Amino acid sequence: MGILTCRMNPTHASRCPKFLSYSMPITIIRKHAIALAVFFTALTTGSVSLAQEGVIPSMKIEEVVKQYQTASNVMVVNFWSTWCKPCIEEIPYFISVTNEYKDKGVHLLLVSEDTKTVYRNGKLKRFIEKKKWKTNFAWLNETNADHYCPLVDSSWSGVIPATVIINPPKGYYRFFEASLSAAALEAEIKKAMGE
Fold first, then answer.
1. 3-state SS, residue 131
2. In 3D, which of 172, 157, 136, 133 has the Cα closest to residue 57?
C-alpha cells in the first residue's frame, strides 16, 4: 500500500518573500479577534461548529501549537489543503471518527494551508460549505514552512496531509506525515485516551 501525500504548496516554501510589516484596519482586527474567541469557545465546549457558524479563524502556528499542547483531553489536528486529494479523501472520516468520541472529550481541528488569496476571497469557506463538513476549522496564516513545520514536529518535511494526535494530560503525542485510514485514526485515538 502506498502512502498518499501532497507536496507542499509552493507559496508556503521558505523562498517566499517575507513581509516586514502589514497594517490592518481596526475593523478587520476586531473581526479576527471575534472569530478567535468563537473558535476557542467551540474547541473547549465542543458545542459550536465553526463551519456551521461560517467562521474560519486565521491563526499563526504558535496559536495552533499552544491550543493543542494545552488541551485537556485528546485533540486531533490535521493539516490539509483544498488542492490536496488525499487530504480531501480523509476529512469525512476524520470528522465521523472524532464525532464518535466527542462525548469522551475528543476534539478535531482541521488546519488549512491554503493561500491567503483562497482564504480572503472566501474560496476556502465555500469549499467547506460545499462539502458540508461540520467541525472546527482554522486557516494557517503562515508562508514559511521552514518556520512552522518544526514547531509542529521536528520530523515534518511539509508534506500533507499531516496529523498530530495528542493528549497532554496523559503525555501522549504522535505525528503522522501521511494519510491515515479510519481504522488507524480510531486506533490512535483509543491509544491517546489510554484504552
1. helix
2. 136
